[in-house]
Amino acid sequence: MRSVRKTFGDSVVLRDVDLEVAPHTVTALIGASGSGKSTLLRCANLLEEIDDGAIWLDDEEITHPRADQDAVRRRIGVVFQAYNLFPHMTVLDNITLAPRRVHGVSRTDAEARAHELLERLGLGGRAGEYPDRLSGGQQQRVAIVRALAARPRLLLLDEITAALDPELVGEVLAVVRDLKADGMTMVLATHEMGFARDVADQVCFLDSGVVLERGTAEQIFGDPRHERTQRFLRRIVEAGRL
């Protein structure tokens, strides 16, 4: 991202954001609610149109007016805090719909990939279930499988544990740890500070739409330089969340 600016009416949500994500790394976006984390992710996937600046994926400016937005989205996986699974479709059909309809993958190959991922994420016996028969943690893992089924270059995770009961958070975060070990490139917005500290290669602290501070997890959590970052993390520690 280069000088990305996004407004909603008179409200400036992202202010001249610069961000670079290296392949096979994890970038964590932290900050208070309303700081712009989710909007940044939505802009990265072209779900929101930016007002100024540019976004690049590999060597392509994906915000160029002539960019094929559908082709761009096929290279980026997104998992939201709401699972967004189709309730009338089985787990298997939820996962294979996009590969078959959008990517042109055969049903046989799409289902083989889905079964492989479900097995890997501990859901091997759930392919024929409907979403309402699954726990929240299981539904979120299915949403992650669905995003991975198309073999994305980049995975965006937006507060994926926010809707989960505390006892289910760990099982979803374990999946993200495994994806990091596999070298998946990820950008995640999270309120799980301990998790961000453990898995992120780069941490960006957002405040009022500005990337106020960025650095390694060790630097941001161990020696934050900006007073606003220090204050934010101090509140997190006092609340027992770090």
From TrEMBL:
It comes from the Bacteria. Pfam families: ABC_tran. InterPro entries: AAA+_ATPase, ABC_ATPase_HisP-typ, ABC_transporter-like_ATP-bd, ABC_transporter-like_CS, MetN_ABC_transporter-like, P-loop_NTPase. GO terms for molecular function: ATP binding. Keywords: ATP-binding, Nucleotide-binding, Transport. Residues 1-233 form the ABC transporter domain. PANTHER family: AMINO ACID IMPORT ATP-BINDING PROTEIN, PHOSPHONATES IMPORT ATP-BINDING PROTEIN PHNC. Belongs to the ABC transporter superfamily. This is Amino acid ABC transporter ATP-binding protein. It comes from Streptomyces cellulosae.
